[in-house]
Amino acid sequence: MTSAAISSAQAAGQPARPGRADGRIDCEVLVIGGGSTGAGVARDAAMRGFSTVLVERADMATGTTGRFHGLLHSGGRYVVKDPKAAEECIGENIILRRIADDTIEDTGGLFVTTPIDDPGYADKFIQGCKATGIEVQEIGVGEALRREPRLNPRISRALVVPDATVDAWKMVWSCVRSARQYGATVLPYHEVISVIRDGSRVAGAVVRGPDGELRIRAEVVINAAGAWAGKIAAMAGCEVNVRPGKGIMVATNHRLVNTVVNRCEMPADGDILVPIRTVSVIGTTDTLVDDPDDWPITRQEIDEMLTAGENLVPGFRESRTLRVWGGVRPLFQDSGPAETRDVTRAHAVLDHRARDGVEAFLTITGGKFCTYRLMAQDAVDAACGVLGTSRPCRTADEALPDSGEQRFYRIGSRLAGRERTLHDEQLICECELVRRGALEDAMARRGAASLDDIRRALRLGMGPCQGGFCTYRATGILHQQTNLSAVAANRALLEFLQERWKGVHPLLHGDQLRQAWLDDWIFQGVLDVEHLPLADQERARV
Amino acid sequence: MAGLTAAVRLAEAGLRVVTVAKGLGSLRLAPATVDILGYAPGRVDSPASALPGFVAAHPHHPYAAITPGVLADSLRWLAEHVQAYAYVGDASANMLLSTAIGVPRPSAVVPETMAGGDIRSLRSVAIAGLRALKDFHPALAAENLRAAAAADGMAIEARPVMLSPPTDGEADVGTLGFARRFEDAGFRRAFAAELRAALRDEQAVGIPAVLGFDQVRSVWTELQEAIGRPVFEIPTMPPSVPGMRLARALQERLRRAGGRFVLGAEAVGPEIRDGKLAGVRIRAGNRETARLARWVVLATGGLASGGIQVDLGGTATEPALGLPVFGPGPGEPAFLPGYLGEHPMGTVGLRVDGRLRPVGQDGEPVRPNLVAAGAVIGGARPWREKSGDGISLSTGYLAAGTILEDAG
């Protein structure tokens, strides 16, 4: 479809759809990166009537977005150190509660002064909240302990702020659904292999997908690759200094608190405990790494998280720890080294024409999950500039699919649903209450042969048994539902076991080790998955 | 299994036996096939022939204490002690039986209801699933069985059949629920009629191992007669109906021999008197008492049962009696990044002498009147080797033998 055709489609009130022919797509806006920022940019651009394509090298939300603790900041964390970031957080917190309630649990947040914290920080915190527009209320220690009985009884002050928790995968897929409704083409599992240059301007990208290579020509390219933005920029001949800041998190097998609990102190390691869905997550650390795709998690880091958890909730060390994982923050800094916690959490839109003499190429980086919508707005505003047009952003006003009625997720929502269908439908994952119909729908919708993709949609295998009981069942259903060959289904099973093992083995001890060994008994003893038939090249990979 | 085997044998020999158990144990989760040795690391056709070389290469393996005679005696002992149905096979040859995902798995001694599934004697089978049973997927099992057999140079036709016998509207019926239903004559008739109608000219039918509990033999026989061809059971993931049959059989034997079984009692330490092991400290509820005994058999299981525990620092302990544990040292890697790797922690456990007495670093027995049996003994990779219940049975049998010798 030519630009003229796009314009006429818009004039007729139709969604602007990219034109697609053999191995080639033409569009106005190409978004690189399928995290929260990229998904937000695709939605925003499509809503403004631009024909839009998004490409992501893996599944949506598998980079940093899918690997954080699930905290929707009130901004309290940044009020003293980074007031600009705090203002952005509270602004977006209010907007997201309005447009994305289906993805949010309104847990509220507490900032508590623990025995190791500066007692004077609470006053600075209250001032900071007032200055940045964050609603804050001090409650007595007794009241805080009544709300959260497992909290350290030696806290001296407790401040209530509007923190919440958010299901990042649900948020990203809601943006994708909305973007698609507005005509966007969203392509997970399409990796950029080169950026197309047309003289001094960027004119698109060549991507490799499951069906081979695609040439995507675009009038503007938005690099929303987060911690990987430097790699994409380098393909366009630009240097962007994004420093991957690793943070690790540890999940316990149930909710130790029902409110987000933060230490009332300058941001530090392991100072947040987040109740998200069925688990609690302690986080996080902040260490620079060289390569966003390759970094270790050490037992020492895990030990530090457990010690930090002990400070917030005594007995934390004895709780059953399910899993450890890490994500890499995209810390953007144009020059000079610095401690990672000193790098601003605010975001930046780089127009590479002014910066590097490369036209029609923008990088949106820095920032954090809570501000993804605002980041997208700023990026698409800049894209409007490149395209010589001005169209207002509407993402703050129009709710995402399934949201907009102030019906927040509640911890008991899934259980209530399952109680209604208990006799009529199989429960495939007992830990996370995943019913068979939901699994079959997700498999049909995604057309995916990856159980890990299904996991992100449904939380399959994310509970205490970490896939011990649901993996075989889900593989059998996948094989039936998607007409997959047995060798492909076997591969899906082994890849899922490997993916689960990845987050389990670094902290395996205590009761969770016992669980893992029971799981091994099932897979290696009873089923003997080690000797599953595979295609030859797949056997080599496993 | 190790604990019950030792307890029954000792009680039947006339000793006063008390079995204390924290829980019902992993036997109820086990497929209840007595796998002796299936992989070492290549597939083993004859465990009896492979064991001498295997033990020579693995001197700390529990089988190092098991002579061919003890192994054969223990297998005979088991067959005599399970009343519900026969255990068939011996250590001279492995059968190849399909798992619930269709992998042919080597197993030496199995319930008669499973033995007909040896794929080397079959050319065409139907794999029958139950619609309300989420723990058995016949289409995947059948396709894998065909592919795996072909890779092994065997041509076998395996066709999936999905059956929907009446379940009173329940969409989600577990293995135990079906086993109970199979003890109902009306359900059996309906099931057999549906299965008969679904079959073509297959030689035999594989179905999940849910053919009743105590009545398994008559259920199985009746079903074979009704469909006019052999039926073989395929073990499922836990909870396991064949495991429950075996556990019930051994517990009933223990009761009849006058042995006691105390459930909900956790061993928390040794009772030492005059410097000697005089019994075990037991916690039941919030009460801790000493239970005195002349001999103690420790059969608390391995990592999966809590018989061996590991802390975050990678230190492994044996919590019941505080015995020396052999595994990767502090700072050494415990687990490898690849799921199917040979994790160093996988072989953690006690070491024993030739009479199954736990030893210390010096190789000497810790206590003369203490023996160990089953997965609490380290040195094995039971699920990889397919050796689990073979180790449990033979060491349980030998542990009793050591005590009987000492008792004179």
Structure explained in plain terms:
The complex is a heterodimer of chains A (542) and B (408). By secondary structure, chain A is α+β, with helices and mostly antiparallel strands. Chain A has helices spanning 3-11, 36-47, 83-99, 121-132, 141-147, 168-181, 229-235, 299-312, 352-356, 372-387, 413-421, 436-446, 451-458, 470-481, 486-504, 510-526, 536-541, and strands at 19-21, 24-32, 52-55, 71-72, 104-105, 109-113, 137-139, 157-161, 164-166, 185-187, 191-198, 201-209, 212-223, 242-252, 260-263, 272-276, 279-283, 287-288, 321-332, 347-351, 361-366, 427-429, 434-435. Chain A has three domains: 3-63 and 169-241 and 345-387, FAD/NAD(P)-binding domain, CATH 3.50.50.60; 72-165 and 243-330, D-Amino Acid Oxidase, subunit A, domain 2 (D-Amino Acid Oxidase, Chain A, domain 2); 413-541, no CATH class. Chain A has 17 helices and 23 strands. In chain A, helix 12 (436-446) crosses helix 13 (451-458) and helix 14 packs antiparallel against helix 15 (486-504). Chain B has helices at residues 2-12, 47-57, 68-81, 112-115, 138-151, 175-181, 185-198, 216-227, 241-256, 382-385, 388-407; strands at residues 18-21, 87-88, 95-98, 104-107, 110-111, 124-130, 157-163, 204-208, 231-234, 260-263, 266-273, 276-284, 287-292, 296-298, 309-310, 316-317, 370-372. The longest helix of chain B is centred in the C-terminal third of the chain and has 20 residues, at 388-407. In chain B, the strands form seven sheets. In chain B, strands 7-6-8-9 form a four-stranded parallel β-sheet, with helices on both faces. Chain B has a three-stranded antiparallel β-sheet with strand order 11-12-13, with no helix packed on it. In chain B, strands 1-10 form a two-stranded parallel ribbon. Chains A and B meet through helix 8, helix 14, helix 15 and helix 16 of A and helix 5, strand 15 and helix 10 of B.
